[in-house]
Amino acid sequence: MKEQKTNFETAIVHAGYDSREHHDSLTVPLYQTSTFTFGTAEEGERRFAGDSCGNIYSRLGNPTVRVLEERMAELEHGEGALAFGSGMAAVSAVLIHLTKAGDHVLCSRGVYGCTFGLLEMMEEKYNITHDLVSMKTEEEIEKHIRPETVCIYVETPINPTMEIVNLQAAAAVAERHGLKMVVDNTFCSPYLQNPLLLGADFVLHSATKYLNGHGDVIAGVLIGRDKPEMENLRMTVQKDVGGIISPFDAWLILRGLKTLPVRMDRHTDNAERVLEFLKEHKAVQTIYYPLDEENVQVETARQQMRRGGGLISFEIEGGRKEAQVFMNALSLIKIAVSLGDAETLIQHPATMTHAVVPEEQRSAMGISDSLLRLSVGLEHADDILRDLDQAFKQLKTDLQQA
Ligand code: MET
């Protein structure tokens, strides 16, 4: 694995870019072009044959996108990275790369609803089966491995229950059985957690979230520990399936990325204030936050995460109706799926991000009808708390009147 040459905060501003190669432009230029010209027919032939390294066509590579990929590889301590048009394009690319008909994927007990949908589709159409299991210890993981298992796929913290997967335990099992391990690191960003350093083979992100951080891009990134394997993935799955990112979106992410450490620290500071507030509130039944002292998994979370991050899930007294009344009473906090933006967002997983998961499996994942997921933004913490407080008061009044 590549040793990080500079500190994280420096690499995130500079890695993968040399202004001398781009007319001395301080910032990464936007190469908003679909294709590149060849000086001669023979040069075109050489580029297609891989004998000359020039650009060909933006589905096969683009200079702006390449800076984002190299930067992400460095930040996640990988050897190569590919940027995609969405987080799900990154998820599907790595699963297409790792599996064939008849294989089995061992998956964490919970995953994002569309990842669950993709796994179900792969099972139905291609007989690539999967199991969703708790992954707190090696023993728990070990007992679900089958002869046809080819990879362990995890989210940690899990969307939206914030359950922690023990990455070192999962990596130990993967190594024993020669399996590839993939980690969705979207909730943490590379600033808070680096799964490749804990034994994973691939790490992926919905770059829509903290990486971009400004709510104006849909994108994904996949980082791997093996350079030839990542180049192979680029020239097979990514080229032929085609879920590439646009140069402009890559440029926007490069712009947003520079402030990631500053933003993540503020998101976490604000989330810690929200955590304390929710703990004091009678209408809140359960709270899920990785670095909450009362979390039974706090030790594992501490070992693999630098700080707790900006997401908090909580159950309020009641069910779906109460959850919806509470959300409708919010004013500053916006009702929206997505996370990692400057704006504080709230969503109801049972009817939104995880609505595609059948009810029985949703409860097995720990998603109840009263569960809400809050992505704590960058506003002043006092204003976020004031909005939550007035919504709880409103909920009480509405319920008394009903
Ligand atoms: C289309 S639903 C969700 C988007 C995003 N993955 C989230 O968890 O909020």
Automatic annotation (TrEMBL):
Top-level taxon in the UniProt lineage: Bacteria
Keyword Lyase attached: yes
GO cellular component: cytoplasm
Cofactor: pyridoxal 5'-phosphate
EC number: 4.4.1.11, 4.4.1.2
Reactions catalysed according to its record: L-homocysteine + H2O = 2-oxobutanoate + hydrogen sulfide + NH4(+) + H(+); L-methionine + H2O = methanethiol + 2-oxobutanoate + NH4(+)
Metal-binding among keywords: no
CDD domains in the record: CGS_like
Residues bearing PTM N6-(pyridoxal phosphate)lysine: K209
GO function terms (MF aspect): homocysteine desulfhydrase activity; methionine gamma-lyase activity; pyridoxal phosphate binding
InterPro entries linked to this entry: Cys/Met-Metab_PyrdxlP-dep_enz (IPR000277), Cys_met_metab_PP (IPR054542), L-Met_gamma_lys (IPR006237), PyrdxlP-dep_Trfase (IPR015424), PyrdxlP-dep_Trfase_major (IPR015421), PyrdxlP-dep_Trfase_small (IPR015422)
Pfam families the record matches: Cys_Met_Meta_PP (PF01053)
Keywords: Lyase, Pyridoxal phosphate
GO terms (BP aspect): methionine biosynthetic process; transsulfuration
Family statement: Belongs to the trans-sulfuration enzymes family. L-methionine gamma-lyase subfamily.
NCBIfam families: met_gam_lyase, PRK06767.1
Protein name: L-methionine gamma-lyase
Organism: Planococcus lenghuensis
